[in-house]
Amino acid sequence: MEFKTAQEKLNTLKQQIAYHSDLYYNQNRTEISDYEYDMLMQQIKHIEAEYPQLVTADSPTQTVQGVANSTFEKVTHTVKMESLLDAFSYDELRDFDQKVRAVSPAAKYVVETKIDGLSMSLEYVNGVFTRGSTRGDGVVGEDVTQNLATIKSIPKKIENAPAFLEVRGEVYMPKEVFLNLVQKQEEEGKKPFKNPRNAASGSIRQKDSKITAERNLDIFVFNIQQISDEYTLASHKQSLDLLKDLGFKVSPRYNVYDNIEDVIKEIEEIGNMRGNFSFEIDGAVVKVDDFETRQEMGSTNKYPRWAIAYKYPPEEKSTILREIEISVGRTGVLTPTAVFDTVQLAGTSVQRAVLHNQDFIDEKQINIGDEILVRKAGDIIPEVVKLVKKNTENVFKIPMICPSCQSEIIKTEESALRCINPECPEQLTRNIIHFASRTAMNIDGLGESIVYQLAEKQLIHDVGDLYYLTYEQALTLEGFKDKSAKNLVSAIAESKKANLDKLIFAFGIRNIGEKAATLLAEKFKTLDNLINAKTEDITEIDGFGLIGANSVVEYFAKDTVKEVIEKLKNAGVNTEYISTRTSETLAGKTFVVTGTLPSLSRDEAEKLIADNGGKAASSVSKKTSYVLAGEKAGSKLDKAKTLGIPVITEQEFLDMINN
């Protein structure tokens, strides 16, 4: 590759890495797999190896990715929390071994599982847990002590502890917890986390530690960063044994080896077992055991020279697509799912993967009978990667008949296929699930499986029937006894008190989310007023378009909806809006919140805007009164400056409310 071409390619790769690193470390989401990210990094390493003059101090090969979020107080790490050099082949491990043996011919290695989570520092003074912080950029992290204190496996007090101890561990979300969380998010109509690592990151950075506690996170501690002088440690194995004795949860597998070939065998063994672990791993870590040798080898700006992480390649297998099942969602959208010959992926049997929509099927050019390549995204969620061999002539087309009610299907502007029959049984059931979800009527204990049982037993047909469910009927549900039956009936009764905005959102009206539901409730005050509203009345609401207004009018015009509302009223469900506004200080003003604020999350800032009479918008326009900007504000800040819209800080915003 010529120098100029290499330089241009390197700049492009750096931009891609910066973009995906920000998503991964700071926004708790991903658009590419870990393997694809690693391959981008490998390309950068190869170009920099060929042209060393292109290596810069801010290169991703020279810096630890991630920054300290300004939402939390910053913590400067006394001992730098370094990253690890990655290896993708056994030859790379052998090269690493040669470098180690050039310093210490008799070196031994400890091999551990590489947990795919978030690196954390835990500090103890006289055995008491005093502070916990994220890695951040390795030098400055963020104080998340309260959230870490909710993790049961983190000792809060250590017996016979050193005067001071700082340890490093990896916080993670167990696979089973992750799958349950994804199911709950889907039931509530939220975009689910893509993998356990993102879920753990999003959970540990919650402003409300109660939410963190609900996520059931766990931790493995793998290193002593600092320890007071009364302890003298000579090796990593010795330090892990001490951590275990002090009550920390350490890697379930750590063995010592005196040659690299045995290390490779252990890595292969861990790879074969990875599907059996209750946690997700993305590799195995190899560390020099002797601390004196580590000291002699030292570190680069980013990596210790005495450790390396072997990354397992994504496990992909080909199989035959045998069937494509079609399911119906609460809004009538049809979702296809591939059913294929069972394959073993990441230690589990897999035979199903979501195909999303017709466009996805067309893109892959697949049909029943074709050979396809499948994998588990993040070793958790099965997905179809591509077509391997075409065994049929055509591409599968989703039938234009609803599998639940046999009604005709229409194609929407969003390219989705939708059943528009209001009496469709599957839609009704999914709508009840949404109605009961936490962000809607918040009926505790009424999950998907319970709703399906109630529907199968003909105890409910719509959301109105929920409020007539008796204790005796609840007792007929599988696994229900006296307490669980009473709890369910009580939770349903408690939901009658929900504010009108929650009820409007719970109806599941197309194009009406939580914010739109609140705007409707604030405007019309009662459900009857909203039912009698005309399209032009609704479009008077600032920010409400014709599509959303028509959706509301069409929904309440249905006879089936009128019947349900009558049931709700007769059952005593609240149909009036109780304003949560504390003042009209911001009345008539429109705010756009962008970037990371020092103490408020975006949701908290937007709630404060609404509570004080203002409006929170998602995009900057000439109608915007103020842009409330934090760190990394990005394009919205640029647009505000271009339009001459005032930009304010969090403190100025709070002063505006208080004054």
Give the terminus-to-terminus CA distance. Answer: 62 Å
Secondary-structure-derived class: alpha+beta
Rg over alpha carbons: 28 Å
For the record, the CATH architecture of the largest domain stands as 2-Layer Sandwich
Beta-strand percent range: 15-25%
Molecular shape: globular
CATH topology type of the largest domain: D-amino Acid Aminotransferase, Chain A, domain 1
Number of helices: 24
The helix fraction, in percent, is 25-40%
Identify the CATH homologous superfamily of the largest domain.
DNA ligase/mRNA capping enzyme
Please write the CATH class name of the largest domain.
Answer: Alpha Beta
Uncertain regions spanning at least 5 consecutive residues: none
Order of the strands making up the biggest sheet: 2-11-10-3-9
Task: Note down, in words, how this protein is organized.
The protein folds into five domains: 3-54, Helix hairpin bin (Helix Hairpins, Orthogonal Bundle); 74-311, DNA ligase/mRNA capping enzyme (D-amino Acid Aminotransferase, Chain A, domain 1, 2-Layer Sandwich); 316-416, Beta Barrel (OB fold (Dihydrolipoamide Acetyltransferase, E2P)); 425-571, DNA polymerase, domain 1, CATH 1.10.150; 590-658, Rossmann fold, CATH 3.40.50. By secondary structure, it is of the alpha+beta class. The mean pLDDT is 88. It has a five-stranded mixed β-sheet with strand order 2-11-10-3-9. It has a five-stranded antiparallel β-sheet with strand order 14-13-12-15-16. Strands 5-4-7-8 form a four-stranded antiparallel β-sheet.
